[in-house]
Amino acid sequence: MLIDTHCHLDFKDFNDDRPVVLKRARDGGVGIIINVGSSLEGTARSVEIANENDFIYAAVGIHPHEADSVSEKDFKLFSGFLDKPKVVAIGEIGLDYYKNISSRENQKKLFTRLLETAKGAGLPLIIHNRDSHQDMIDILKDVMGSSVSGAMHCFSGDENFLKICLDMGFFISFTCNITYKNANKLKETVRLVPMDRLLIETDAPFLAPQDFRGKRNEPVHVKYVAEEVAKIKGISFEKVAGVTTENARRLFKINA
Ligand code: NI
User: Fold this and answer.
1) What is the widest separation between alpha-carbon atoms in the chain?
2) How far apart are CA 146 and CA 148, in angstroms?
C-alpha cells in the first residue's frame, strides 16, 4: 500500500471524473490520500471530500499566493476547520519567493499567523517553500522553536537546507519531479534523506511523472515516486512503500 501525502483533488481539474480518479488510485494500491487545502475555499472542499471518502484525509491551509487578500474573517473561518474529525494537518502554508504572487511582507505575516494557529491546535505542518529558505527557517524557529512536526512538501533545497530541515525534525516529501530525466541534483538529494524521514506525494494535478509530462497528474502516479526512490536507494519497491506508509501514518497520526 502507498500513501499520497499531498494532492489537490478539490481542484476543478478533477470536476469531470473525480470518482474515476479515486477508483484508479485505490485499484493502483493507494490506500490513503491526504488532500491538501491551498485556499479557504479549497480547504472547505478538501474537508468535504474527506468526509465523503473513508480513505481520504484533509489538510487545511492557505497558500502564500493568497496572502494579499486574506482578511480577519478568513482566519475565523479557518479556525473553524481545525477540530473537524478528518483534519490531520495544517497545510499547505509557507512562503513562495519564486512566483511572488503576494508581497513578501504579507506572506510572512500570513505564515506566522498560521503557524501560531497550528501550534495551538497541535497539528503537524505541510510546508510550501520556494526560494525562501532563510526567511522560512527564521520564522519557523521564531514561532515553533527548534523542533517541528511536519513535512517539507515537494522538497527542492540543497544539502545544507536539507540538513537544517532534518535537524528540526521535518519529514522530507518528494513528488513525481524526481522522475524527470534532468533531475540529477534532486535524485542526489533523495539519496541523502534517511528512509525513516521520507514521504512520497504527487501534488496532483501538478508535476506529472516523466512519462506523462504536460498532462494532468493524479494520485495513482505516486507509485512512480516510490519506484524512483527504490531505484535511487537500491532497495525494493515494497520496502519504500512500507516505510513511507509507516512514516506518513506516524506524522499524521492515521491509524485506519
Ligand atoms: Ni500542493
Assistant:
1) 50
2) 7
Q: Give residue 145 CA to ligand 1 midpoint distance, Å.
A: 25
Please enumerate in sequence order all residues whose Cβ is within 8 A of that of 112, keeping only pairs 6 or more positions apart, or say none: 139, 142, 143
Q: How far is the CA of 102 from the centre of ligand 1 (A)?
A: 17
Distance 5 CA to ligand 1 centre (A): 10
38 C-alpha vs ligand 1 centroid, how far in Å? 7
Q: In terms of Cα–Cα distance, which of 89, 70, 230, 232 is closest to 170?
A: 89
Distance 119 CA to ligand 1 centre (A): 21
Mean pLDDT of 61-72: 92
> Mean pLDDT throughout 33-50?
96
Which residue in 12, 6, 167, 155 sits closest to 91, CA to CA? Answer: 6
130: nearest Cα among 151, 157, 108: 157
φ/ψ bin of 145: left (φ > 0), alpha (ψ from -120 to 50), beta (otherwise): left
How far away, in angstroms, is 6 Cα from ligand 1 center? 6
